[in-house]
């Protein structure tokens, strides 16, 4: 068992609080992404789990064993944790094989076998072992860094924004290779990232860090479809935010009457609400009582396009449409809701 349990973890620097009582459970063999803005304390949390930094309060258990808290602190090398830094952190004076086996027992035959196993696991050819880190691409270096982290069969693997320095295409392929390798080992994994799409696509569970606390923890689908507030909804992706007035039919807003808004807040209990809908849940299709507006701009992204529309009797809204059916600026188009809607009490 390699469940990670974090309870009441607090830490600050120079009297300024950074982490303010974090609680999180990462089940055995799963991946949790800690998502938040840069500088929000995500790396600090990883360093505490790894044993490089001591918290001011709180406890951490790994596989049911207390590794931090109540006056106890297990050294990093005895925690069963592998750590992959943002830059990989490979030793430039060692070849790939030397990097992977650094810290392993010196039995030469077993070291060679282990290098071959790990290179295969992370999707690199066996000949890579003799290369220096500066002869590898950024994606290859990150795969080697993962192989090194897995060399001692850790219970837990910590990933500190390992894909952020890679270009878009390389980031996707490297992320897929890392996810496959981690799944094969069954390691419990914690990824910290400020990339929303990376967190949603990579993890089984997402923990959103805000102001030193977790504002919401859940599956990627739960946090994307039911964010706890407007601020979190906007952090997770593009949103259209409109003021609304509850009526006996639904919510009246610039898009007409929205009859079945989702979300956990009972909209009928408030005089005014904020209605939140994502651009992909609007459509440029006519329907009785729908709104109309003028196309202002279009941003073409290949498979889809983002269309900015000034509603005739309301504000500007963004609508995501298929890339093959993009209207032209100046066109008059219908706009209606064609997907889930969230409502929150007006601030």
Automatic annotation (TrEMBL):
Entry keyword set: ATP-binding, Cell membrane, Ion transport, Iron, Iron transport, Isomerase, Membrane, Nucleotide-binding, Transport
GO molecular function terms listed in the Swiss-Prot or TrEMBL record: ATP binding; isomerase activity
SUPFAM superfamilies referenced in this protein's UniProt entry, alphabetically: MOP-like, P-loop containing nucleoside triphosphate hydrolases
Classification via InterPro entries: AAA+_ATPase, ABC_SmlMolc_Importer, ABC_transporter-like_ATP-bd, ABC_transporter-like_CS, ABC_transpr_FbpC, Mo/tungstate-bd_C_term_dom, P-loop_NTPase, Transp-assoc_OB_typ2
One Pfam family it belongs to: ABC_tran
The keyword Transport appears for this protein: yes
Domain spans labelled ABC transporter: 4-236
Domain of life: Bacteria
Name assigned to this protein: ABC transporter ATP-binding protein
Organism: Janibacter alittae
């Amino acid at each position: 068992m390699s469940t990670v349990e974090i309870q009441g973890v607090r830490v600050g620097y120079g009297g300024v609080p950074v982490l303010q009582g974090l609680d999180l459970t990462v089940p055995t063999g799963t991946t949790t992404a800690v998502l938040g803005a840069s500088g929000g304390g995500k790396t600090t949390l990883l360093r505490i789990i790894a044993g490089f930094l001591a918290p001011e309060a709180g406890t951490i258990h790994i596989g049911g064993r207390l590794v931090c808290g109540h006056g106890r602190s297990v050294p990093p090398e005895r925690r069963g944790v592998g750590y992959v830094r943002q830059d990989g952190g490979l030793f430039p004076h060692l070849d790939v094989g030397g990097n992977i086996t650094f810290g392993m027992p010196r039995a030469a035959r077993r070291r060679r076998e282990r290098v071959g196993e790990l290179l295969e696991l992370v999707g690199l050819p066996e000949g890579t072992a003799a290369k220096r880190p500066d002869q590898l691409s950024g994606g290859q270096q990150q795969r080697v860094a993962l192989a090194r982290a897995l060399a001692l069969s850790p219970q837990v693997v910590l990933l500190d924004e390992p894909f952020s320095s890679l270009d878009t295409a390389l980031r996707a392929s490297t992320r897929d290779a890392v996810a496959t390798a981690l799944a094969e080992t069954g390691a419990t994994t914690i990824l910290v990232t400020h990339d929303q799409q990376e967190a949603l696509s990579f993890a089984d569970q997402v923990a959103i860090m805000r102001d030193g606390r977790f504002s919401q923890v859940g599956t990627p689908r739960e946090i994307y479809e039911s964010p706890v507030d407007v601020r979190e909804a906007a952090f997770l992706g593009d949103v259209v935010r409109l003021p609304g007035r509850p009526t006996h039919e639904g919510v009246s807003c610039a898009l007409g009457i929205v009859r079945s808004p989702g979300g956990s807040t009972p909209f009928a209990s408030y005089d005014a609400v904020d209605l939140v809908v994502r651009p992909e849940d609007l459509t440029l299709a006519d329907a009785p009582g729908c709104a109309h507006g003028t196309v202002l701009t279009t941003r073409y992204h290949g498979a889809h396009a983002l269309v900015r529309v000034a509603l005739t009797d309301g504000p500007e809204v963004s609508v995501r449409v298929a890339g093959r059916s993009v209207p032209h600026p100046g066109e008059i188009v219908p706009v209606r809701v064609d997907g889930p809607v969230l409502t929150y009490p007006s601030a």
